[in-house]
Amino acid sequence: MPSNKSVSDAPITQFINCRILRDNELQREDLWVREGRILDPEKLFFDEQGYADKRVDCEGSIIAPGFIDVQINGGYGIDFSQASEDVSDGVSFVAKKILEHGVTSFCPTLVTSPPEVYHKVLPQVKVHDGGPHGAGVLGFHLEGPFISAEKKGAHPEKYLRTFKSGGLEHLMEVYGSLDDVAIVTLAPELPGSQSVVRELSQRGITVSLGEHRVLLLVSESVSVQPGRFHALSNPSVSAVVQFHHRDPGIVGLLTSDGIPAGRAVYYGMIADGIHTNPAALRIAHRAHPSGLVLVTDAITAMGLPPGRHTLGQQVIEIQGLHAYVAGTKTLSGSIATMDMCVRHFKQASGCSVQEALEAASLHPAQLLGISPKKGKLDYGSDADLVLLDEGLHVKATYISGEEVWRKGQ
Amino acid sequence: MKLIILNDYDQASEWAAKYIRNKILQFSPGPNKYFTLGLPTGSTPLGCYKKLIEYYKNGDLSFQYVKTFNMDEYVGLPRDHPESYHSFMWNNFFKHIDIKAENTHILDGNTADLQAECESFEKKITAAGGIQLFVGGIGPDGHIAFNEPGSSLVSRTRVKTLAKDTIMANARFFDGDLSKVPTMALTVGVGTVMDAKEVMILITGAHKAFALYKAIEEGVNHMWTVSAFQQHPQTIFVCDEDATLELRVKTVKYFKGMMHVHNKLVESPPSEPKKN
User: Fold this and answer.
1) Do A250 and A396 fall within a single domain?
2) Is A379 on the interface with B (CB under 8 A)?
3) Residue A168, pLDDT score
4) Nearest chain A Cα to B90, which residue?
């Protein structure tokens, strides 16, 4: 049918035969898109007397907001923390590949590195929108070096730092620039962290309180008291959250009533079935379901086929979903994709489809303060979409209403 | 009048929907010949709308050449409020079918000049060639549209203050909070509906039984405005058993006895070869 629009000439697409994630539930509704955003069809009908130019038959698929990965260190042989000349190409390569996993926006993550790396890498990648070229870059996630030695996990100890006096300036010396940084992970127990947290928050940067493996991501500044957060148990492969009745640690924070009203606490979990014990997933989900953010924390080996690969200084062996230091049974990091994490999270925690999808879309968007533009299918939200089948496998990915990946093509 | 009595709400809704479907199909609407339909809101017609949507989805019915005129709309309620009649019609009917937006007409309760809006609505009906079939419901106080007790039986489209009964009946759509229910509405008049070629009133549920009794077994009276249709040449009342609870047994038996004749009106139309 011809369209008759008074507000805009742009073509209108109507997704039919679908179930959409809206208002915390799966609704049997059509989804309308114009100019890269979700459109209100009732307004279109009554105000503009317009209708769709194009209908996309989703054949019963689920439509969720595109997944947002706020912690991904690389993939497909590319390591974001590598100070090379073509960081931008590497990021773009991964950005394109992760469309297959339903990821439409992400934060390339740098692990603890010396200042030279930051000074070289950071200026090469700017925040930019996604599209057919790949998922959008929301900004870097700088994980370290201001994390504490006890909890360093796999971060190289010699590059860890503490805050010298002059907090933020010292941070700037190390990083060089904060212009395209979305998240900084630091250790709250380091002296001087409080003012740094405050200043970063004022710049709109999300501060993450770093415990390797299970991150606590806090949006806007929460008053951080040294000594309030204690170590998790040794962040080994299956991170068990230690809960002591006099020292509730991270679990205590999740359910704390000390959090000021209007502030939200989010926590990242890697639901690859290997790095986080299913019980830990269940406990976290039940303690604070609306704060759970699924992250891949994917390493360079993600996306590579099974077998041995030489990545930088290391030789990695991939067997199924496990990536070992070659010749050992030591895990070198997670290689699960975001859609795998969503499926595994649902199965391990027993949560609903809607909760599993929100953990990968709505919650990361809220964490970064970019909801409802991203992470939701509200009228006016960006039309970054992932079409999924019943089993939550990705069938197609859209950015700004444009199809950027389809299974089988 | 034809009084059609079905066993329950679902059957009454289906009968009414089939009747409307057949009327449209028999009319054979086209680009120069639109079928004009008057439409109600509320819980009573929901089942009927669902069935009509089903017939559209099956390919048995198209609304491409149908023009609709709704009976009423609240005054002062934002158009996108979930309880506005615009929202009702969009969510329960328009968004599921192939009707063109420019062929739908609902009174605008948010214009500056409500009187002019009412006059303009009457003119639009006339310009469309009058209404072929006006579908309506009945309030517990016997009103049609918002023509509350005491409304003139020759009234036209106008602004009305709602009766307490009506506000109470509508409160359930506003979280049970009487203060949230609009107090005024724009409504077609009794006379406006009487001008239609045919009128179909849907009445279901025991709470409407007394109103039905007053409307068809007592005299024409402006306190029960639906009674005006006793003087319309083509009126059809579609009810369920519960709605007949206040009628005389004789009335019910008489009309039930006619069902085999009346059911011919809702038989599936002979299937035609689909045009390419």
Assistant:
1) no
2) no
3) 79
4) A42
CA-based R_g, chain A, Å: 21
Any domain includes A331: yes
Q: Residue B37: inside a domain, yes or no?
A: yes
Domain count for chain A: 2
Helix (H, G, I), strand (E, B) or coil at A326: coil
Owning domain of residue B214: 2-238+254-264
Distance CA A207, CA A217 (A): 6
B31 in a structural domain: yes
Please confirm whether the linkage preceding A123 is cis (ω < 30° from 0): no
Quick one: closest CA in B to A32, which residue?
A: B95
Residues A264 and A391 occupy one common structural domain: no
Segments forming the whole domain that contains residue A60: 12-64+378-406
Q: Which helix (H) or strand (E) holds A136?
A: strand A136-137
Chain B closest-CA separation from residue A51 CA (Å):
8
Q: Looking at the domain assignment, is residue B275 inside a domain? A: no
Q: How far does B125 lie from chain A, in Å, by closest CA? A: 18
Q: Does the beta-carbon distance from B87 to A49 stay under 8 Å?
A: no
The pLDDT assigned to A242 comes to 40
- Of the candidates A69, A79, A272, A297, the residue annotated as catalytic is A297
User: What pLDDT, on the 0 to 100 scale, is given for residue B271?
Assistant: 66
To the query of whether residue A297 is one of the catalytic residues in this protein, the response is yes
Residue of B nearest to A43 (CA): B80
Most A-contacting residue of B57, B90, B91, B96 (CB-CB within 10 A), to test interface: B90
Query: For residues A81 and A111, is the Cβ–Cβ distance under 8 A?
Result: yes
Asked if B51 and B144 touch (Cβ cutoff 8 Å), the reply is no
Query: Are both A390 and A308 inside the same structural domain?
Result: no
Residue B165 has pLDDT above 90, yes or no: no
Residues whose CB falls within 8 Å of the CB of residue B257, separated by 6 or more in sequence, listed in order: none
Residue A373 domain-assigned (yes or no): no
Instruction: With a cut of 50, list the residues of chain A below it in pLDDT.
Output: 1-3, 212-248
Task: Give the gap in angstroms from C-alpha B133 to the nearest C-alpha of chain A.
Answer: 23
Report the interhelical angle of A353-360 vs A338-349 (nearest 10°): 140
A42 touches chain B (CB under 8 A): yes
pLDDT at A401: 96
The one-character DSSP state at A396 is E
Closest CA to A388 of A67, A138, A24, A156: A67
Interface of B with A (CB under 8 A): 79-80, 86-87, 90-91, 94-95, 98, 100-102
What interface predicted TM-score (ipTM) does this complex get? 0.90
DSSP labels for B97-121?
S---GGGEE---TT-S-HHHHHHHH
Q: Which of B80, B95, B102 sits opposite A49 (nearest CB)?
A: B102
Chain B residues with CB under 8 Å of A46 CB are 79, 86, 90, 101
Q: Are residues A60 and A160 in the same domain?
A: no
Give A54-102 as a DSSP string.
Answer: EEEEEEEEEEEEPEEEEEE-EETTEETTS--TTHHHHHHHHHHHGGGGT
Q: Which residue has the tokens 């709308």?
A: B49
Do A64 and A385 form a contact (C-beta atoms < 8 A)? Answer: yes
- pLDDT tens, A311-328? 777 788 898 888 888 888
Residue A220 among known ligand-binding residues: no
Nearest to B86 among A46, A48, A51 (CB): A46
CB contact under 8 A, A4 and B90: no
> Is B95's CB within 8 Å of A42's CB?
yes
In a domain, A255, yes or no: yes
Residues of B in contact with A30 (CB under 8 A): 95
Q: Judge whether B271 lies within some domain.
A: no
Torsion of CA B99, B103, B106, B108, to 10 degrees: 130
